[in-house]
Structure formats: structure tokens, C-alpha cells
Amino acid sequence: MAERDRYHGGREERGEETSPRSRGRRISLESEAERSDEFKDFVVTFGPVSKTVKGGRRRSFRALVVVGNGDGKVGAGLGKALDLTDAIRKGIEDAKKNLINVPRHGGTIPHEVIGHFGAGMVLLRPASPGTGIIAGRGVRPLMELAGIRDVLAKSLGSSNPYNVVYAAMEALKALKSRDEILRARGIADAGQASPNSRSEVVSDGTV
Fold first, then answer.
1. pLDDT for the residue numbered 64
2. Rounded to whole angstroms, how far apart are CA atoms 69 and 66?
3. SS3 state of residue 29
4. What's the pTM?
């Protein structure tokens, strides 16, 4: 018994793990931290919410958060909690559960698209290089975190930031890459297109 205690004690002094289970837990936590560092988040809006109950009014917070890796993956989520910090944390977790892949053509989007959500409607148009992100406060962080550098965006419906952000997400979901468009038009392999034929996607990203 004494020898075993000295053995484990020596391993602890050298900083070694004493059980395989603890080693696996440490590795999983490190890998989870590495995955979380891949994404950046941005709080679009937050505010208090009051609910009238039998004993009076119950006050809580909600936060709208967008996350992305800057390379074609982006998501939006809504978090609600009694504390603002917890609401933001829940919003980040919800956004990571709703990640989508955004097809891009260079630094812009492949084609024009309109997204609808509730009373919100957002129009996205491709832009030439150097234009930048022409968008409002709700759509701009979504485009930046998706890795889109040049785009024209216009809100055509409600100005509610929640509807605007989710309408922009619906627009991004409706985007199709050049290869997907060619397959839908009956062209099996984009690389086999005739060199004399007109390109399906022109230089500014429109189809």
C-alpha cells in the first residue's frame, strides 16, 4: 500500500495523470476548446424582456448572436436567460447548432437572392471587388463572419433586427454554387463546358 501511494505521489509531483479516465477527459476538453476557438461571435442586439405573472413582473434578457469562422460557415441564434451573460452564452450555443455553409464566388456571393422571415425581407446582390459590405448593422456582421467581402444588401421589410438577421440567413441558405446551377441546368461536368460558350457566372458574380 505504501509503495503504491509513493508511486502515485511521484507521478503527481511530475505532473502526470494518475488515471486513463482523467487523461481522456483532459484531451476532450482541449479539443473542445480548439474547436470553439475556430469561431468568432458578434452580439447583434440584446435587451430586457418583462413577463407578467401572478406575483408580479418577471424580468429577463434576450440576445441575438451570430457566429462564424470567416470561411463560409455562419449561424445565428437567440438566447434567453435571467442574466445577460447567460443569455449571450445561450445565443452563441444556439447559433453554433444552426451553422450553414455559404457558397461564395471569389469574395462575393454567386447570384442575387431574396430571403424572407416573418415580416422581414432582405435582398442580397453580388458586388465587384473593392466594393465592400454595403449593409446595415444586422446583416453586416453576418456577412463578415461568413467570409463575404463584397456584397450589396437591402432590407425591404421590417426593421426588426431579429427578422432582418433571420431573413438574411434564409437568403444565404438559398444561395447555390456555380456547379449546383450547372447540374440543375443539365450540364453534368462544369469542366467539360465548351470554351466558346458563354460563362454561366460572370466576373462580378452574377448568373
1. 95
2. 11
3. helix
4. 0.70
Q: Return d(Cα 113, Cα 64) in angstroms, integer.
A: 23
Q: CA-CA-CA-CA torsion for 176, 177, 178, 182, nearest 10 degrees?
A: -50
> And the C-alpha cell for 85?
451573460
Question: At 97, is the secondary structure helix, strand, or coil?
Answer: helix
| For residues 95-113, average pLDDT | 92
Q: How far, in Å, CA of 112 to CA of 110, rounded?
A: 7
Residue that the C-alpha cell 413577463 belongs to: 51
- How far is Cα 76 from Cα 93, in angstroms, rounded to an integer? 10
Give residue 102's identity as a one-letter amino acid code: V
Question: Nearest to residue 42, comparing CAs of 137, 159, 107?
Answer: 137
Q: State CA 78 to chain mean position distance.
A: 12
| Burial state string for 156-172 with b = 16 or more CB within 10 A and e = fewer than 16 | ebeebbbbbbbbbbbbb
What cell was used for 28? 476532450
In angstroms, how far is CA 93 from the centroid of its own chain? Answer: 11
Looking only at the bridges linking them, the beta strands covering 133-134 and 151-155 are parallel
The dihedrals phi and psi of 183, each to the nearest 5 degrees, come to -65, -40
**Cβ proximity of 64 and 130 under 8 Å:** no
